[in-house]
User: Fold this.
Amino acid sequence: MTTGNPTTAGTTVTAGHTRWRRFLGLLTPTLVVVVLMVIGVLNGTLPIAIATEGQQRIKIKINEMTATGYGAFPRFFETQDGEKHTVVVVGLSGVRSSGLCGSGKVDTPIGDYVLRVETKPDGQPFQADDVKLAIENIDGANLAGDTLALNRHDTNANGTPVDSGHPGTLPITVRSVLLDLHADVRWVTTSGLKLSAVDLTAGRNVRECF
Amino acid sequence: MPHLSLGQSLAWWRRWRHRRPFWAGVFTLAGGLTIVLLPANQFTVLMLPGVAGLAGFLLGGLITAIGPLQWFLPDQRILLGITTVLLALAAFIYTNLGGFLLGTLLSIIGGCLSFAWTPDPTPPRTPPRPRPSPAPRARG
Assistant:
């Protein structure tokens, strides 16, 4: 039994065992780091990346925004469990906005987590060429504001509004709007995003926009 | 090809395990898979172009790959162990708390076991002495 030695590739490999003191020597400082990181996350001082599911509460506050809506169209979204969800994709293009604040609250196992995006008061306006939001359902939407103008982007010389959008699109002009949306948003994509003047904060002690 | 009886297979298997940080690889593999798979059936709310969705696959995949490496490159156990620990800590920050802490902890245990595994001093070669009866011994 002892002589039947199968060929082993490793030449220097012999039998070995675990040195538990050595094990603890690395494990102890590592666990200290882990505990510190957990404390940091619970305090909201350590930023983490989290992907989670469930109800999103999205609050958007806009002082001034212009955009072109190019449609809301149904699509399918398939989660990893193979379940298909119908979502409505809202497309906006040529978004320019100042005084924008958007925040989303996510329930996580360690408590509420808030992601907040805000343009700086004196910075450049937030710009994005193309924004798409896939919304599965909207539980509640509260809208309050001064001006919400659809397809009244331009007026001609004597003040008459003219249809200024490209065919099939809808120019949107918004001033001082609070939008409180409680919805399942499946995904958000943007392109041509200019984030130079945007504060992005996330954490447990971040306040929502309003 | 030698045909091994059950007893010989078990003996071969035991020898295979004892010549490498076996449990280190098991824990590292389990931790890496946890990090890859736990967030997989969920979806990202805000997709920023870049690392957000990739980090889980990148860090989890690297840790998963290191598990078998600890088996087949036992000479590199210290480097692999420390790398596993560092990747596990990074995974905690970048991917869903490292598989909701479980994957990070499993990987850290795997990395520390790999770091702590030490080959026994080589026995003197000259006399082909029979191995002493396999006394049960605390193994990692």
